[in-house]
Amino acid sequence: MTHSYDESENQGRGPEEPVVVRDRRRVDPQTGQVRPPGPAHAAPEPEEAPVEHAGPSLGDTIMDDAVSVVSDVEKELAERTADLQRLQAEYANYRKRVERDREAVVIGAKATVVNDLLPLLDDLERAEQHGDLTGAFKAVGEKLVSGLQRAGLESFGAEGEPFDPSVHEAVQHNTSPDVAGPTVTVVMRRGYRFGDRVLRAALVGVTDHEPAAAPSVGGEAPLDGGADEQQQ
Predict the structure, then answer these.
(1) DSSP states of 29-98
(2) Which parts form a coiled-coil structure per UniProt (predicted)?
(3) More reliable by pLDDT, 138 or 70
(4) Contacts of 197 (CB under 8 A, 6+ apart)
(5) Residue 115 to residues 22, 64, 111, 166, 192: CA-CA distances in angstroms?
(6) How far apart are CA 2 and CA 187, in angstroms?
(7) Nearest Cα to Cα of residue 5 among 25, 26, 21
(8) Element (H or E) spanning 156, and its range?
(9) For 117-145, how does the pLDDT look when each residue is reduced to its tens digit (9 = 90+)?
């Protein structure tokens, strides 16, 4: 009896691999009975036809529910991020405002203390002008002035400065052809500023420009001089 086996399974095998023999006979040679259909005799399953995926029709959307949920989460995350950034900016502005107010309070307190010491500085200046600021008294005065200057005190009001009505208080007024414009020529009391704040204006005398007298035409002598010569 001829044995039927599948040679396709043995094709491509190496010399060391065992040969597989499958008995595909419908009648069992030992019992003579017809064998029930098994995996070897089962009919081949039909191949599934490829499924054609048609695109969305007009008006349909290709976004599923999962994508829409993610979009909602991202939208809410963006809103919370914007709120956090806005809150952070407001807090930064609040800190700057607090620091600015605190600095203004400190400067105001220093200016109040320095303003109370201005009469003492006037006494020291007058004593120096009269030659009375000597010895230990002079050393103490110099330390006081240098300490106030380091704190931010600045004096102004000197002869030759251009007149500025915002920091100078004019109590005298003269004219002269020697100046080009309103100029401080006399300082009666020095002015002081602390930072950007003017603590006290300077008392000064101001001299304005006066055009020089025009020379006489033709070199003629004044009438008074001619009259005197005639009398002589």
Answers:
(1) TTT-PBPPP-TTTSPPPPPPPPPP-PPPPTT-----HHHHHHHHHHHHHHHHHHHHHHHHHHHHHHHHHH
(2) 70-104
(3) 138
(4) 107, 111
(5) 118, 77, 6, 18, 9
(6) 141
(7) 21
(8) strand 153-156
(9) 999 999 998 898 888 888 888 899 899 99
- One DSSP character per residue, 82-143 reads HHHHHHHHHHHHHHHHHHHHHHHHHHHHHHHHHHHTHHHHHHHHHHHHTT---HHHHHHHHH
Nearest to 27 by CA among 45, 63, 2, 58: 2
What's the CA dihedral at 185, 188, 192, 198 to 10 degrees? Answer: -80
Question: Exposed (0-12), middle (13-18) or buried (19+): which is 177, by Cβ within 10 Å?
Answer: exposed
